[in-house]
Each structure stands twice: as C-alpha cells, then as structure tokens.
Design a protein that fits this description.
The protein is of the alpha+beta class. Helix content is about 50%, strand content about 15%. It is built from 10 helices and 6 strands; from the N terminus they run βααββααβαααααββα. The protein has helices at about 10-15, 20-25, 50-65, 70-75, 90-100, 105-115, 125-135, 140-150, 150-165, 200-210, and strands at about 1-5, 30-35, 45, 85, 175-180, 185-190. A 4-stranded mixed β-sheet has the order 2-1-5-6. Strands 3-4 form a two-stranded antiparallel sheet. A hairpin with a 2-residue loop joins β5 (about 175-180) and β6 (about 185-190). The protein starts with a strand and ends with a helix.
Length: about 210
C-alpha cells in the first residue's frame, strides 16, 4: 500500500497537513503529486489584495492545525510586491530531490517552512538550490536535475496530478488517497478525509496503521 498525496507547495492547507504527511511517512510510502495551483497562467505577484485574501485562511489553518506562520511571511513576503507566487519551480525542486535521492517529501517540507515560516521566495531557482544543499544534496547535481525537469517535464507531472485528482474525486489540495495496486493497475483506492485528522498527527498515524494492517 501507499499514500498518494496531491499537493501544492503554495497551498496553505497543505502546509497545515504537513504534520499528517510526516506521520504517514512512518507507516507507508507517500507518493507526491504536485498540482500546480499557481503555475502557468495562475502564477501571480504578491499584492495587497492577495494578502487580504490569504490572511484569514492562514489564521484559520493555524488555529486548526497549530502550524506556525512566521512574521517574515505575514509581514515580510506578503508585503513584498516584487515577489511572484509560482508553484512550478518548487514542484520541480521536489521532483529533482526525489529523482536524485528519494528526498522529494523532505524537499516539500523544507520548501513549506521556507515559505510560510521564513518568508522566502520559493519560486527562485537559486533559493531552491540553497534549500537542497541544506538537505544534504549536492548543489551542482541538483541544479542540473532541476534544469532538466523544468518546463515541459514539470508541466506533464502537473497534468498527471490533476488527472489523478479528478479520477479520485478530490475537491482540491490537499488530497490523500490510500492506494493498493493490483497486477493490472490500481485495484483499490480510498480517499482520506483530511479535515477529520488536521491537528492530530499521532491519531492519524494510529488510524493509518489500523488501515494498513500488519
């Protein structure tokens, strides 16, 4: 069995679900599918209007999950009108970290902290390389892999992720799906009610262990 996770690095609720993903990784493989919420035509600059829109959601996420939103994010990045929110580069970074060292989930977690706690510009390739090095990856190898996966390969991944999201009836990000493949493809899929588990990673881990079995 595995847990398919349809996420976006710029989705606040995915950041809220990060402790659940960390708990799940103790139980079974977690496969990441980047959805590209703010990729392509959806990428957008930081504006006062955007800040006014996301702040109430972020406060709600913090209240429900206990996840911290740093001052550098709320009063720094969200007031940085030179910043652009683009999901594609951090998704590429997750793909590169996974391809190089099986560290995609670690890269996603690091990117989320960089954005929501440290208020850093996670759409910038130079920063993503810095984060990869912080994770212990070779910076030059990461940069080469990142360049190879940028553009069309990342877009193909996003399209496949959106297809999966539609296939399982997911309403958006985050979507978690317990999956067990048969000889001819997915034999069993069970969508997880993420909202029922937010803020309760230990209970979620126990629930998953019961579902997965010995």
């Amino acid at each position: 069995m595995r847990l398919d996770y349809v996420y976006d690095p710029l989705c606040g609720w995915c950041y809220g679900a990060a402790p659940l993903v960390a708990a799940a990784r103790k139980v079974l493989p977690v496969v990441l599918h980047g959805g590209g919420m703010m990729a392509g035509a959806q990428r957008q600059p930081v504006t006062p209007r955007l800040r006014d829109y996301v702040m109430p959601h972020d406060r709600r996420i913090a209240q429900l999950t206990g996840q911290p939103f740093g001052h550098a994010y709320t009063e720094g990045l969200l007031r940085d009108h030179g910043a652009v929110l683009d999901s594609a580069p951090p998704i590429t970074a997750v793909l590169a970290a996974e391809q190089l060292a099986g560290r995609g989930a670690d890269m996603l977690a690091r990117v989320q902290v960089a954005h929501y706690q440290q208020g850093r510009r996670i759409a910038e390739a130079e920063l993503l390389q810095t984060l990869a090095v912080e994770l212990g990856l070779d910076g030059e190898a990461f940069a080469t892999c990142f360049a190879a996966l940028s553009g069309a390969p990342t877009q193909a991944h996003i399209e496949a992720s959106r297809h999966l999201l539609a296939e399982v009836g997911g309403g958006g990000f985050p979507t978690l799906v317990l999956a067990q493949d048969g000889p001819d493809g997915p034999a069993r899929r069970e969508r997880v009610d993420v909202g029922a588990h937010l803020g309760q990673p230990e209970a979620f881990e126990r629930w998953l262990r019961e579902r997965v079995g010995p």
